[in-house]
Request: fold
Amino acid sequence: MRGLTLIELMIALLLGLLVVGAAIGIFLSNKRAYDTTEGLGRVQEGVRTAFELMARDIREAGGNPCDVDLPFANVINSGSTNWWTNWGVGLEGFDQGALPGSLAGTDAIQLLSAGDESVTLQSHSGTNLTVAAHPYAAGQNLIVCDTQQMAVFKVSGTTGTTIGHAEGGGNCSNSLGIIPAACAAGAPPYLFKQNAVISQLHAARWYVANNTRGGTSLYQSIDGGAGQEVAEGISDLQLTYLQLDASASNYVAASAVTNWSQVRAVRVVMGLTGTAAVGTDGQPLSRQLEHVVTLRNRNL
Reply:
């Protein structure tokens, strides 16, 4: 029987190598696409949770358990200068890296609201608010409100049933009244009525910054503390605002907002970038998440 010639064998080997090379190329391409999609999917999964947390803070901005239009007294020492105790600014935005620590070219937002956990007042005497039980500790910033007014104060001391607001324990006055003015010398005491609501003051800043791994992430700062990394792979954050007054019909940048107390909705645009794998063009895959969040307490 006639066998294969050397030329025929070389041609067969060449054709085999071409088929194997094509198969390897397809496999590598599919693996790269899979890794890229999986990496971006992990980023998107983390961002969904982070976005929900951020949206919740925005929805609750400026809200308290009683009435958003109540007059308020802030008796915390430096309560109007520290952003995390300045109840007068329930929502404020920062453009293009204006917030210290945020990434250049990205926006940031700070939000104040009442916390989720509340207790009901039984009685108020002197500098003690008496309740059945409470989870608060000395040094925490709290809100108390009834049908007539609201006060923001620092807990000077606690027992199992009382919450103190004495001057010297982080407050500028023993009185929680608004007349003649918070911290005014000799201000008459205001005693909150039974069934007034007490809750913790929640202050949060959201911004994008560089992480320790050479990328960028979304961060949250709570009550003036250090920023905590919430979601990796956030490369951009752009925020615009809709004011409540009739003359404002478009979303504007923070620099164009004339009255932060009139902002009723925030448009959030997040840029997401994959972290591990790269796309077929040699660049990381990126996506954009856009959503409008309406402030619950200003939805008129």
